[in-house]
Amino acid sequence: MKLLKKLTILGILGVSFAIGLGFLGFLHPAFDTFSHFRLHLSLGLFVVGVIVALREWQRLGLLALVVGGIGFYTASSGTLLSKRDGMADADKPVYSLLHFNLYWINSQREAVIDKIIELDPELISLSEAATRWTFVIKRLDEKWPYLIHCPEWGKRGGIRFYSKWPLKTEGQYCGPYGSFARTQVIAPNGFEFTSGSVHLRWPWPASGPKQLKTITPELEKIGQNALFAGDFNATTWSHSVNQFAKASGMEIISGVGPTWMIDELPLKHTWWAGLPIDNVMQKGAVKVISAKTLEDLGSDHLPVMVKFQLQ
User: What CATH topology corresponds to 82-310?
Assistant: First the structure.
């Protein structure tokens, strides 16, 4: 029993320490990577806390419950529990933006394009538009004639932002290695807003922080009204995503839920084991009504459909 208690103490302290490190992303990107696992570690710690408390190790159980509770609360923005659909204005049309990381080796390319055409959004944000997608993706050109394409050096491909509405060519920007596409959209009523797509790399050991530092001056140029979606390779609650939002003056939409799963597990397990790394942001008179994931289309990400209005 003494050995069991010692191991339990070490386990709870170790997990608590790992959760705590995730709050130090402002010091080093490695800590931001720790934050990605905050939700899973916190839920596990909370469950252990309940079990430990029932075994009459109240102080130890209380520590696990408190740390697990704080961790879960601060990561809840990435869960479906924080989903809050807005009220649509009955006098104004509802538009849609579809974001999807295609996955450069996705074998369901024709089915993906079929689904996009069926969904018929006004705006489309696509990541990992690799060379092997070049032929099939041309099917989008007829219905979405306006495009900003930011290619990435390498086999994974870059990002493509399609629009049924005109895009201003002046002031368009592509970040390094297809990390960020920014353009000005002209809606049917003449209303203009900034939009585009995002595909950053992981905070650590990848180069996501360097990309973010490079594009920050361009984020600061985003106008008063904006809508962005993309694969941030960082969780909704992470330092990276919050830095992006702060620099651009945008608001992170909570409640999209987990969108990515490692290849070793099927996407049907995303709801409990996945990470919410595909994020949506709004600003000014662009109001998101809802943002939700769609069915599996052969990628390691789920598509995200965003419904919005122009106020």
Answer: Deoxyribonuclease I; Chain A (3.60.10)
Half-sphere exposure of 277 (CA within 13 A, CB side): 26
**CB-based contacts of 289, cutoff 8 Å, min separation 6:** 85, 86, 87, 88, 94, 307, 308, 309
d(CA 257, CA 260): 10
- For the whole model, what pTM was predicted? 0.94
Burial of 214 (0-12, 13-18, 19+ CB in 10 A): middle
> Which residue in 135, 87, 86, 127 sits closest to 109, CA to CA?
135
Question: Is the CA virtual torsion 299, 301, 305, 306 positive or negative?
Answer: negative
Give the HSE-up count for residue 176: Cα atoms under 13 Å, Cβ half-sphere.
11
**Tokens 């959209």, residue located:** 185
Q: In this predicted model, what pLDDT tens digit does every residue of 36-58 receive, in sequence order? A: 999 999 999 999 999 888 877 78
